[in-house]
Backbone:
């Protein structure tokens, strides 16, 4: 008798044998119990998770001589024929081979005939997404209103390729990837009945190789048994499968946490000597550090990571060394290295540099510690104590824009500095304004030039923006003499007849008298003429910023912070509220 591989020998024969798909099996059993069995089903999911097996079990449950029953007997002739794949009323069609519209027409012609021996005529189409568009269209009407003795069961790994018109006519069941502990438990059940000696660690490596697929895991186990016989060793499994030994991953994380650069370089050397793919090893490291991070963050994470009991115990012993923030930085380094290795001709060098960076990474200072230090600094500053009589920042010169020191509330300029008010010549510190005659001073008392410009701004903003560039040569209730630079844009705009008319009307409204307007064209340097409002604003802003800088750099808290953290001031920036 020919050998039957484990994947076929231990194929599920009842809904209770399905591993990891309880949501599907329970729904189908309830539908059979209540008599609400649909005429078309669509089973989707990854490879080897039980789609076709579930279709066969459903076919047996519907056609069993004891049923329809949620659990087929697997002893009657109908169940035996379906299990063997030679039932005349259950058709298993490969969608990848029968893709044409003619194949679907032949299927449609056979549907109208009653089943020969069973209760239902069942069509199982595997990889249904491979059918052509014409084949799908030829199946639409039959799929929507089939005869009462016909059931359709479609299986596919790519449901997005199935037309929406087909999806809307089927009950869809999504099969999940099988968790690692469930696969290991099923493999243990099988090897115990096959009288095979193998450790749980080796079974975990086999199950991880299956990547959530029971069929792939059983095929890998078949390969291992063919190589090792009835007694399987861990080293033989590692050698045969070419997987990364989990002990090597644990040793890598331990050496990183102990900051041993020589040890991590030796590990990379061993990985290269074993012939492992460097990028694959980096991916395994990412998964390993992810498991450590999850355990550090949430404690018990069996439902979040695929770890056996032994691996969980070994990882738990390493949790005390690293901080959660450091683990997140380790993961960022590994993710960046894995991305670079995809395009690098020196993958070993990339991995070595990443592990060395992880081993020499300086731990971050917790925010709470920094806040405590700042409280100490604030206490010293309030008590009149300065950290040093001669801070180091006074002796160094700024080398470029490296950091920003922003003044706090206590170092802000006074309220008068911030409050926007009509600028005047008296408010400018350090500015050399022309000496005014007594007549001009009396004129300014009667008619204020900044006040007049503010009045114009409320009525005619565009005209006020032009006046801000004019020099008030004489301001009185009877005459406004305004100087502009010769040939300037502002002079030409104000000389416009309409602008002059608006200006006279506004002057009359402000001074309450008929006020004359005289425009003077100024050439050469300003000399002793009054400054424009825009010049006053620029000078006031420069003085204010200089005052802010002096207050910030001379504050005792800033001096103490510079000494404690060893910093220098390169720029002072005001925080706008």
Residues:
């Amino acid at each position: 008798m020919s050998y039957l591989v484990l994947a076929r020998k231990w194929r599920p024969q009842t809904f209770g044998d399905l591993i990891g798909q309880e949501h599907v099996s329970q729904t189908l059993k309830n539908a059979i119990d209540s008599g609400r069995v649909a005429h078309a089903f669509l089973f989707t999911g990854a490879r080897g998770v039980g789609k076709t097996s579930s279709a066969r079990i459903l076919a047996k449950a519907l056609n069993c001589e004891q049923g329809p029953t949620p659990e087929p007997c697997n002893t009657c002739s109908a169940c035996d024929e379906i299990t063997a794949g030679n039932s005349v009323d259950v058709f298993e069609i490969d969608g990848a081979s029968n893709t044409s519209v003619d194949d679907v027409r032949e299927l449609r012609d056979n549907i109208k005939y009653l089943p020969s021996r069973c209760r239902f005529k069942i069509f199982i189409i595997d990889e249904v997404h491979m059918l052509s568009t014409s084949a799908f269209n030829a199946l639409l009407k039959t799929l929507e209103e089939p005869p009462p003795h016909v059931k359709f069961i479609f299986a596919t790994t790519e449901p997005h390729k199935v037309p929406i018109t087909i999806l809307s006519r089927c009950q869809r069941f999504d099969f999940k990837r099988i968790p690692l502990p469930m696969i290991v438990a099923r493999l243990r059940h099988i090897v115990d009945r096959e009288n095979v000696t193998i450790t749980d660690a080796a079974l975990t490596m086999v199950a991880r190789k299956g990547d959530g697929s029971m069929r792939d895991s059983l095929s890998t186990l078949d390969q291992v048994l063919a190589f090792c016989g009835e007694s399987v060793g861990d080293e033989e499994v590692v050698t045969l499968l070419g997987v990364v030994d989990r002990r090597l991953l644990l040793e890598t994380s331990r050496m990183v946490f102990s900051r041993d650069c020589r040890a991590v370089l030796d590990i990379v050397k061993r990985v290269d000597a074993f012939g492992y793919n460097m990028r694959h090893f980096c991916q395994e490291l990412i998964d390993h550090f992810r498991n450590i991070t999850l355990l550090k963050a949430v404690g018990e994470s069996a439902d979040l990571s695929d770890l056996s009991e032994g691996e969980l115990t070994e990882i738990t012993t390493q949790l005390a060394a690293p901080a959660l923030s450091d683990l997140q930085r380790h993961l960022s380094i590994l993710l960046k290295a894995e991305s670079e290795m995809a395009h690098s001709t020196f993958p070993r060098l990339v991995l070595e540099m990443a592990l060395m960076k992880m081993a020499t990474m300086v731990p971050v200072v917790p925010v709470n510690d920094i806040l405590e230090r700042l409280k100490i600094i604030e206490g010293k500053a309030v008590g009149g104590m300065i950290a040093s009589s001669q801070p180091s920042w006074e002796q160094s010169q700024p080398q470029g824009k490296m950091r920003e020191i922003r003044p706090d509330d206590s170092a802000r300029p006074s309220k008068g500095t911030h409050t926007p008010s009509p600028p005047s010549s008296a408010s400018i510190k350090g500015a050399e304004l022309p000496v005014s005659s007594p007549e001009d001073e009396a004129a300014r008392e009667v008619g204020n030039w900044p006040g007049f410009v503010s009045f114009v701004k409320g009525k005619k903003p565009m005209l006020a923006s032009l006046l801000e560039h004019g020099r008030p040569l004489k301001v009185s209730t009877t005459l406004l003499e305004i100087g502009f630079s010769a040939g300037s844009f502002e002079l030409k705009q104000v000389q416009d007849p309409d602008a002059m008319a608006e200006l006279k009307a506004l002057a009359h409204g402000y001074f309450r008298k008929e006020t004359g307007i005289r425009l003077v064209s100024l050439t050469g340097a300003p000399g002793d003429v009054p400054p424009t409002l825009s010049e006053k604003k620029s000078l006031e802003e420069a003085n204010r910023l200089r005052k802010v800088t002096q207050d910030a750099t001379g504050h005792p808290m800033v001096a103490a912070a510079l000494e404690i953290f060893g910093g220098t001031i390169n720029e002072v920036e005001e925080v706008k509220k």
